[in-house]
Amino acid sequence: MAENQNSMTGIQGDYTEEDIQVLEGLEAVRKRPGMYVGSTGAMGLHHLVYEIVDNAIDEALAGYCTEIGVNILKDNVVEVADNGRGIPTGIHPKEGISAATVVYTVLHSGGKFGGGGYKVAGGLHGVGASVVNALSEWLELTVYDGENIHFQRFHDGGKYDEEMKIIGKTDKKGTTVRFKADPSIFTETTEYDYETLLKRMREQAFLNAGVKIIFSDKRDEENIQTEELIYEGGIRQFVEHIHNVKGLVPLSESVIYLSGSKGESTAEIALQWNDSYNEDIRSFANNVHTIDGGTHETGFKNALTKVINEYGKKFGLLKENSEKLIGDDVREGLTAIISVKLTDCEFESQTKVKLGNPEVKALVEDIVTEKLMCYLEENPEKASAIFEKSANAQKAREAAKKARETARRKSAMDSASLPGKLSDCYDKDTTLTELYIVEGDSAGGSAKQGRNARYQAILPLWGKMLNVEKARIDKVYGNEKLMPVVAALGTSIGEDFNIEKLRYGKIVIMADADVDGSHIRTLLLTFFFRYMRPLITNGNIYIAQPPLFKVWRKKGKKEIAKYAFSDEERDMYINELSEGDGKVNVQRYKGLGEMDPEQLWETTMNPETRTMLRVELSDAAKADEIFTILMGDKVEPRRDFIEKNARYAQNIDI
Prior knowledge:
This protein folds into three domains: 27-229, 2-Layer Sandwich (Heat Shock Protein 90); 235-398, Ribosomal Protein S5, domain 2 (2-Layer Sandwich), CATH 3.30.230; 415-546 and 614-648, Rossmann fold (3-Layer(aba) Sandwich), CATH 3.40.50.670. 35% of the residues lie in helices and 20% in strands. The protein contains 19 helices and 21 strands. Helix 3 runs parallel beside helix 6 (194-207), helix 4 crosses helix 5 (128-134) and helix 12 packs across helix 17 (597-605).
């Protein structure tokens, strides 16, 4: 044991200059990769690709790149090639090595800190290329300068054995990067998801009208997938694409497009209302998706609410003494893309999820205030439809407020405000408590008998609940299927939601492993996503995984039983139990109600033996899209989605 450590407490004693570590080169990135790419899971893995593609996009913003190729190659090697100027390869005056080597081995280096390299760029921190190199098993950099082909190979997180060298002649310009993510860093997975990358590449093509991005998945030589993405209509087509994918019907034929600039900063906005009840606003700064919004999004929302109210007053649609429309009213059913281009983006972190530039708020507000009002005045029929949509949303909000107050009064008068069918637990510690939302009274009875009543509560539901994708919040209050869930959780919903009042640390959806059970799970998840989303982002929602089969045989008076969660597992257990004499029996559970309390406890509820899936939200926009497709009115997008994803479905009875 070290002399300077207290053997009883484990507390370090002396703290000297020898304890101060200096991480050389790219060691800091490998030591704390999450600081630079968000995580060492799938999100961080894909972020590597985004960083290299963003560099190519920056060349497009500078006016030098028209085509970008992005390929996933065998063994999950990624290749990004652009026809831009090519990274400078001359000797850097300070570092004494090729400037391209500096870009890929030194943090906070590049041509994006001012000067003539780039006026507008997403990679303003100057760490993207070097971070990707640091987190790669190997990386190959090829630069074409119109005369020579320059090449350098890096390995083990940015080390190199040879300086950049000329390997041939060329008449083309551009940069090609090939890299393989380091599996010792990305221990969860190094497998790229085609759809995740395609979504990002399509976004970039929309945001940069006229730039061609050719995205290919070449991992399977017999099934190469390629998408050529080029959109001359830019973000207008982005809005149209979102509506088409979701199957939403726009209130007007054309997308409203607004743009303007101040100094070297520009902003463009495309917006269109549709027949849904949900808003979908996506904001970007220098082509980077600002997931958590920022000043550009705030400016848009403020100006939008102001303009719609002023239009209503000016043309007598909003009475003098009537309540103003609020932001939620005017944004109901709105799809909008906000894209700003700045010389100096202030992001909150390297992963760039929120924009902080204060001057952008004023720029966007001015554009929307002036140009949207002009549009509404010049298009009275369209303006009337937009205002009517907002006014209806206001009425629904007021109806919801009354229903909410009625529900509060009812709860206050009712001493037993918890649902009658709820079998509550004794413990109140939310680090332990679990609420099982169970399909049907039969399964609910088995769950109630089989549970640990100290910390497990059971709430049986019967029949199909309200599909909130097709209803506003005022329809939720008083709904006999959903309000028992709300009452049991204690958090309320919508604007009254308060996660501090949550009564259970885990909310477990336990439904049959069939089509009806899948529908019930989706209905509940839609409800949680639309009206209690913090429960998902906080990690409180789980999906129970009951077994599909019981495989057993008699051995004397003793029964040897195994529970299988898939066909493959069932067959494995059949083979395992077939040794020697004795008949092997297989029972297919058609529903939770077929299990006795002991079986349900052992397979699905016992923390030591159960399997549960935690519901996570890695991409809110993608989740919004899927819920709209699956639970919306339009059949065609739902059919397309099911056909496209049927190969991923498991354990569904048809």
